[in-house]
Write the structure tokens for this entry.
Amino acid sequence: MNEDWPAPESRSAAARADLVEGVSKFWMWSAMAMQDIRMRYRGSLLGPFWLTISMVIMIAAMGLIYARMFNMELEHYLPFLTIGLVIWGFVSTVITEGCQTFLSAQNVITQVRMPFSVHAWRTVYRNMIVMAHNVVTIPLVMIIFSVPVGWQAIIILPALVLLAINGLWVSILLGMISARYRDVPPIVASFVGVIFFVTPIFWPPEAVGAWMDVLPFNPLFAAVDVVRAPLLGKAPMAYSWPVLLAVTVVGCLGTFALFTKFRARIAYWI
Amino acid sequence: MAFLRLVNLTVEFPMYQGSSRSLKKLLVATTTQGNIARDATDRINVRALNDVTIDIEDGDRVGLVGANGAGKTTLLRVLGGIYLPSRGRVYSSGKISAVLDVSLGLNPDATGRENIILRGMYMNIHPREMRERVDEIAEFTELGPYLDMPARTYSAGMMVRLGFAVSTCIPPEILLMDEWLSAGDARFLDKAQKRMEQFVGSSSILVLASHSPTLLSKWCNRGILLQQGRIVQQGDIKDVIATYTEGLPRSSDKPSDKSSEPPSQL
């Protein structure tokens, strides 16, 4: 392979142009994501609200059992669990579906030229639509248990934006690696399955006692915490925002470097 | 002024087979200095295009001819900016519309009309703009009531009608088409040819890969004959078709060109 052409600086410019043009194609990837959802739930009566129903069943089942196990009041445990599961649902599916970002767009990539970042936005946006359906369960639970929501909850908006940005680099990064190495998607899927159990989503962080010192090293906990804590009227852990911001910066820079280097190879890999 | 210029263009495909597709094998190979899974880094490069130089000017209607695997589709993909060449340069000017597969962006469960919008989206045309063109496109396809039925009920030829009509709804400056067009019936092909002639006058370029001598001689004025990634003949389409149908001289090259260079990229 000739590495001189295109020149490194033009590669970086091409990667930047790809990302910028990707954002401006909002109409394209939002429509593609809607189409994905429509395809997935075609012919079903409730459409994506099946997700909401299965979420409600999961919350009810887990809530009743684990509230007892952790000795917590249902009115405290259920809102905690509900918000945790909704955010986790978004984070975990962006990671697992992020692996398919370019693989599933194979026939598009080999036929028309369009920014690669469009496919990553499509993955992120599709999962945002799914999350929007699941979010319905949160006010439901909050109203049932009359959890007060204050103005400080507005902080979840920048938190959600940050989650979307993280979703973008994760989709591009895992999408590229999975296109090259086909055993990555199942590896990632099994890791995500394990992380669910070691992250305070259905168990309160205090439950692990001294092991709480390890939690700052789990960025997925930070991602859940920055949204969940304000909605429950609490402050997130002191490290949650710094951890999430650091992951965002490092992830974006690292992914950009790899995207610059290998963007042109993606079409050959898939 | 549209043009396409390829200079000494070579495209090599890394063939990742079996274990070189595996991250696990790669990691094992790295940690054991390659004793256990040495084949993880073995890579065969297949040269799909070899030192190709082509000049295509305004108004050229180029037919790409060659046996299966000669490099026609790869060449179209390089022209469309999908594959970045391993060596050599591509210069082009003009808006390119590549229609390599008739099923691009089509959703088999959506109706013909919905698919017109969808396919337009994949061609970078906003649904708003597409909606204004739907009627004109629908008329051209002559699919009538079928346009309100799911695309899964369409025959191959009907798909071609839909795909062609959408792809040419905005006259492209450079149109790249793969063999799928031959599935259309004679009447439709005549109609399509008239539409093509409207915009492939003096200011546009058509590059068409096909195996059909009749289609090629009707639609094209220049021909390029490819064999194993090399250009064997360029010139008048009639001469090129004649060479192609008479049978190519046997080449001494091996079918797949193993590159001896060490892999420099993933």
